[in-house]
Amino acid sequence: MLRRLVLATALATGLAGASVGASSAVPLPELPPLPLLSPPDSLTVTVSGSGIPEADGSWKLTCDGRVGGDHPAAERACERLEGFARAGENPFAPVPADRMCTQLYGGPVTAQVTGTWQGRRIDARFSRSNGCEIDRWENAEPLLPSVRA
C-alpha cells in the first residue's frame, strides 16, 4: 500500500513537472478572478392580526443596490437591513430559549419573513407575545410595520 502511494506520488510529480516544462514556452493569459455571486436580498413580509388594515398584508422587498418590490417602506427597510449587515447582526435570529422575558402581551399580530438576506435563506416568524418578542419586532421596524397600541 505504501509502495503504491509513493509510486503514485512520484508519477504525479513527474507528470506535473513535465507539463509545466512543456507549457512554459507558451504563457497563458491571466484571467481576472470570478466574482463571488450571492443572490440579492429578496424578502417577502407577511403580517396578520394587527387590527390595522394598512399594517396587515404581504409585500415583496428587494435590496440589491436598487430598492424594489411593493413594500410600503422599502427604502427605509433596506437601509435598516443594511445597518444590521454592517453591524454583523442578524435581525431574523429567534429569541434564545433560555432568555428571561417580561410577560407583557403586545397583541395577536404575527409576521413571517421569508426569502434571502446576505446570501442566507430566511424563514423567520415574529410576534408580540412577550417583552422579548416585542423588542425583536420593534428592532426590525420598518421592515415590519409599527403596530404599537
Question: What is the topological layout?
Answer:
Layout: H1 2-23, E1 41-48, E2 57-63, E3 67-69, H2 74-87, E4 110-117, E5 120-127, H3 131-139
Antiparallel strand pairs: 1-2, 1-4, 2-3, 4-5
Tags for this model:
single chain, 149 residues, alpha+beta, Subtilisin Inhibitor, five-stranded antiparallel beta sheet
What does this entry look like structurally?
The chain has 149 residues and is of the alpha+beta class. The protein has a domain at 41-139: 2-Layer Sandwich (Subtilisin Inhibitor), CATH 3.30.350. The chain is 30% helix and 23% strand. It is built from 3 helices and 5 strands, in the order H-E-E-E-H-E-E-H. It has helices at residues 2-23, 74-87, 131-139, and strands at 41-48, 57-63, 67-69, 110-117, 120-127. It has a 5-stranded antiparallel beta sheet. A hairpin with a 2-residue loop joins strand 4 and strand 5. Residues 1-23 have low confidence and may be disordered. Keywords: Disulfide bond, Protease inhibitor, Secreted, Serine protease inhibitor, Signal. It comes from Streptomyces roseolus.
